[in-house]
Design brief:
mainly beta, ten-stranded antiparallel beta barrel
Length: 101
């Protein structure tokens, strides 16, 4: 299990196997180059070190322990390999956005 953090290095969650977790709660998955929510609905895809949404728009990048938004601003950090980077980037892009009511 490896963690991902915000820009001040505060722990936000972890990637445990294919599960993206906040605390002990599974909120999504990173498996087979796909990002899904906890109901296994596809949210986006992993293409190398890039997260893209369902319309193939680049949403985030990750590498060398850092997570970037699509404008190359650092939005977080991760410990571990690219699998954790993908999970952390997916969390920050797909699970923290405010939804319109």
């Amino acid at each position: 299990m490896s963690s991902f953090k915000d820009t001040s290095y505060f722990d936000l969650g972890s990637v445990d196997g294919d599960d993206i977790k906040v605390g002990s709660r599974v909120i999504g998955h990173v498996v087979n180059n796909k990002v899904t929510n906890s109901d296994n609905e596809t949210l986006g895809y992993i293409a190398g070190n890039t997260i893209v949404n369902l319309r193939d728009s680049v949403m985030a990048y990750f590498g060398d322990g850092e997570i970037f938004d699509s404008h190359h601003n650092i939005i977080g950090h991760y410990e571990g390999g690219n699998h954790t980077g993908a999970g952390g980037a997916a969390y920050m892009i797909f699970f923290t956005k405010k939804k319109a009511a």
